[in-house]
Design brief:
This protein is of the alpha+beta class. Helix content is 18%, strand content 39%.
């Protein structure tokens, strides 16, 4: 039996998932960080909104979640949602919810992602005040890491799958022009999969950190190549030393 052919991804979104009681804070903070305007809310409980940049296409959305602390997930925009979902299921994903024209799925390790219709988005937003939200980092327990790398690499064959800068990292990067890539991170302990957002903030990560703190973020930890912050809604995210324009690693 032949495997379902892959529907190419035409655009990507990062989703900021935050508890419903802190949703307004999350919307205000991330709109300020990305220099965007919040769309009108939508959904049965007004739980979704899009961060709209001026003159380019959106690539960040926000969602109020009723259970848990939230986190992040990617949306993949395709011309043929049904074909993309079939390929994902064949690769080991599971369906969470099948809506009219779009679907919520889980990767083999349990990471949520969505397959949604492509509406012609093509123009990536620019760098804003030294940073660009360009990465969904999926934090994976050791026992599931190899299978998860294989899953995402197989689901996105037109993307570049390669080892990251550290042994515990693996990058799945889209073709040029798409705004969001994946970083797969192997955790040091067995715990449920989760995800957070990363912003490329090089070459001046300290200046970006100071701006985010003025907007309401709180410092959590500093590492040699990234800084961990917490947004006003309680969600963790990272500023990385990658170049904000190119997404590439800083030169030694």
């Amino acid at each position: 039996m032949s495997q379902p052919s892959r529907a190419p991804v035409r655009w990507t979104y990062s989703f900021v998932d935050r508890p419903a009681e802190h949703f307004a804070r999350a919307c205000a903070f991330w709109a300020a960080v990305t220099d965007t305007v919040l769309s009108e809310p939508r959904g049965d409980e007004d739980e979704f909104a899009t961060l709209l940049p001026e003159g380019t296409d959106a690539c960040v959305k926000v969602q109020a979640v009723g259970d848990g602390a939230g986190g992040a997930h990617p949306d993949f925009c395709v011309e043929d949602v049904e074909r993309f979902v079939a390929a994902a299921l064949d690769s080991g994903a599971r369906t969470v919810a099948d809506h009219d024209g779009w679907a919520v799925l889980r990767s083999p390790a349990g990471q949520l992602f969505c397959a949604v219709p492509w509406h012609g988005e093509s123009v990536r937003p620019p760098v804003v005040a030294g940073s660009r939200l360009d990465q969904v980092s999926i934090d994976i327990p050791p026992s599931a890491y190899d299978a998860e790398v294989a899953f995402w690499s197989g689901l996105l064959p037109d993307w570049t799958s390669r080892p990251g800068s550290l042994p515990e990292f693996h990058v799945v990067a889209p073709p040029p022009g798409l705004p969001v890539r994946l970083l797969l991170q192997r955790l040091g302990e067995e715990r449920p999969v989760s995800a957070h957002l990363d912003l490329a903030a090089g070459p001046d990560i300290d200046a970006v950190r100071a701006r985010h703190e003025r907007l309401g973020a709180r410092f959590v930890a500093a590492h040699p190549h990234w800084t961990v912050l917490r947004d006003p809604a309680g969600g963790l995210y990272c500023l990385t030393g990658r170049d904000a324009e190119t997404g590439g690693l800083p030169r030694p």
